[in-house]
Amino acid sequence: MKLDVIINALGQVREQKPLVVNITNYVVMNNTANALLAVGASPIMAHSKEEMAEMMSFSGALVINIGTLDSVWIPRMLFAVERANANKKPVILDPVGCGASTLRTETSRDIARLADSLIIRGNASEIMALAGENAQTKGVDAQDSSSDAIVAARFLVSEYGANVVISGETDHIVTADDQITLSNGDAIMPYVTGMGCTLSALTGAFAAAGDHTGLAAAAVMGVAGEIAAEKSQGPGSFQLQLTDGLYNLTDDELAKRLKIA
Amino acid sequence: MKLDVIINALGQVREQKPLVVNITNYVVMNNTANALLAVGASPIMAHSKEEMAEMMSFSGALVINIGTLDSVWIPRMLFAVERANANKKPVILDPVGCGASTLRTETSRDIARLADSLIIRGNASEIMALAGENAQTKGVDAQDSSSDAIVAARFLVSEYGANVVISGETDHIVTADDQITLSNGDAIMPYVTGMGCTLSALTGAFAAAGDHTGLAAAAVMGVAGEIAAEKSQGPGSFQLQLTDGLYNLTDDELAKRLKIA
Amino acid sequence: MKLDVIINALGQVREQKPLVVNITNYVVMNNTANALLAVGASPIMAHSKEEMAEMMSFSGALVINIGTLDSVWIPRMLFAVERANANKKPVILDPVGCGASTLRTETSRDIARLADSLIIRGNASEIMALAGENAQTKGVDAQDSSSDAIVAARFLVSEYGANVVISGETDHIVTADDQITLSNGDAIMPYVTGMGCTLSALTGAFAAAGDHTGLAAAAVMGVAGEIAAEKSQGPGSFQLQLTDGLYNLTDDELAKRLKIA
Which residues bind substrate (chains A, B, C) (predicted)? Predict the structure, then answer.
């Protein structure tokens, strides 16, 4: 049962306290480090090529987020992926703004191509841009707004051997064997910067602790977000409540609230 | 009537959800992105020259903030201003620390000189440093502490064709045709980092949605700040309440609280 | 009496509002700037070599934190230390992650060697890594988990002429003449990113205002942290409450709560 998998994964993160290396954007570094700590993991925010081989040798996962992409950082990102590969550690790619510039689209694809063990976490637009023309739907599939993104995700699964998390009002976890839908979260979340980035960081923690699908992180984030929204008066208080919510989340709350299909 | 202009401008931001490109300092990236989201706009925090032409082609304004100025970033800032000019988009300059170093003063002037459509938002000291010797008062004008800054702002208006917002205990909006005073806000605000930077970011959102004077952003920030202060126990809770306050601000509150002259 | 020294130091910070230059990591720039403001100091977050001579000429202390160390920044850090020396200003070194990579260990030692007036603030692991083999205990000293770190701190005191603050569940302030233990703080603090970095920043403010031992900053941080924890439901609300707590801290609370030995 999926719920047991998720509850077990959260327990593993809290028990193992995995080290997660994050090469992420300036905007969310603080929030994502705090989210990782709150869920029980140990964030390392490191960006220097000179120390990346050492960092990846004792860490459990690598999260690469291109939110404030700088051409100077691209070779560092690729080198970090190589070191993750060499250490057989999973890579989580957050292709922020993929499609908004050629630099972002091409860098995302370079990273996806290079990573041996890959989870991609993006919103529908980013996932479609990453897949590009290869995954254009023929129209007939498009029964709802997420159909195109799911088709794109399936392409990414086959092209890169990746597992894909499409986050949004509904989250879709797409793997070679499975497709799961999560309907937690809250409408306030798009008004808070870095919610997707936070999910990507958490995905790194759960991957380091053994869940390579992205499912457990998305479930924890969605349920914690739902609880946080109930205690918030706006996006400022939501951010605080989300961190508290990740820290305080119980198995019972997960079981009671999880909307999975 | 100014109040109607302000209320209309806020409605436009919430309706249009304008994209605002921010090349800003590391300290405030998270806060300013969250303030832009809370007020209804869409922040893009991007810094790479390689993608700036694309970013400015579909965005509504460019905010340049030199708070953590790095010589590597200066050519990127100037290139972004050129792209804003080419797309006829307004540029908001926040000359953080202007006067504290030659690098900051000269960079601020280079940006001001280059921008075709410019709003400058700074505190009194920064505005005076930006104007420099050209705007020194003769002493007789100096009836209150803001007189010198207003003289400096008038110089900047004529020299750069800019509109100028001097923020502080009292805000002054200085344009070629008008001079407006706002007396909202709260004494806690100087104890929270990035309040000026947040106003500059909001000024970008309102400029993208049609208000090129800087008035509406300053009014919204001042009133939201006043409401936030009433709900706060210190600068930590103020930051949260300000974000919530920008999100929840109503036309009625604006009308009831606005202190304008 | 130590309490009087601490209370006096807090009063000096609030009265003098010292300027503190911070070359710090991306993750904590916002928090540390806010902590400095909340305690009454004036943060400058500046990183350009081109302006560092000017910045150090009118500032009271330099805080160097290697949390997101980049080889591009190392020469800037060393130049800033030279300018601090030239202006006879204290340097606070936060050797984040010292021992986790050769780059961090060597850079920390280069900075420590260069600074004329130095306070080092780290956790036990960082302090031991910075001291390295030179400070290995012989086993017999190791009566509790902090013994090794205190031996390492004593080595750093003699090697670099530094004062050393080891922060953790118990804080140890080690100087040439004294060794003080503080037992304030709360178990939630390791779940919030940048708590050590915040203490380092505060140490800069207190050093600029006259306390070169690191004691007053650690005492203020510990007591404010303890108060904040009582008002928190998790690490998100703790961060907010800490900022409020630094702002609102009274001499009476300090006197009532300080656990010093």
Answer: 45, 194
Q: Helix (H, G, I), strand (E, B), or coil: what is residue C244?
A: helix
Q: Which chains share 3+ C-beta pairs under 8 angstroms with C?
A: A, B
Integer-rounded Cα radius of gyration of chain A = 17
Q: Are B46 and B29 in contact (CB under 8 A)?
A: no
Pairing state between β B19-23 and A171-174: unpaired
What is residue C232's three-state secondary structure? coil
Q: Do C233 and A239 touch (CB under 8 A)?
A: no
Residues of B in contact with C30 (CB under 8 A): 27-28, 30-31, 193-194
Do the Cβ atoms of B237 and C245 come within 8 Å? no
Chosen for mutation from B65, B101, B238, B243 (greatest number of chain C CBs closer than 10 Å) is: B101
Question: Out of A54-63, A68-77, A139-148, B64-73, which region has the weakest mean confidence (pLDDT)?
Answer: A139-148
Distance CA A173, CA A196 (A): 14
Contact indicator for B249, B243 with CB cutoff of 8 Å: no
Triad C108, C110, C114: Cα angle to 5°: 120
The position carrying tokens 């603080």 is A30
Query: Among A28, A101, A234, whose Cβ lies nearest the Cβ of B247?
Result: A234
In this predicted model, what pLDDT tens digit does every residue of A162-196 receive, in sequence order? Answer: 999 999 999 999 999 999 999 999 999 999 999 99
**Structural domains of chain B, with CATH:** 2-257 (3.40.1190.20)
DSSP string, C49-69: HHHHHHHHHS-SEEEEE-TT-
Residue B142 has pLDDT above 60, yes or no: no
Query: Are B37 and A103 a contacting pair at CB < 8 A?
Result: no
Q: B23 has which bridge partners?
A: B64
Measured CA to CA, the distance from residue B65 to residue B32 in angstroms comes to: 11
> With contact defined as beta carbons under 8 Å apart, do A106 and A133 qualify?
no
Using a CB–CB cutoff of 8 Å, tell me whether B239 touches chain C: yes
**Alpha carbon distance A158, A240 (integer Å):** 38
Residue of B nearest to C19 (CA): B100
Q: Count of CB contacts below 8 A, B vs C? A: 87
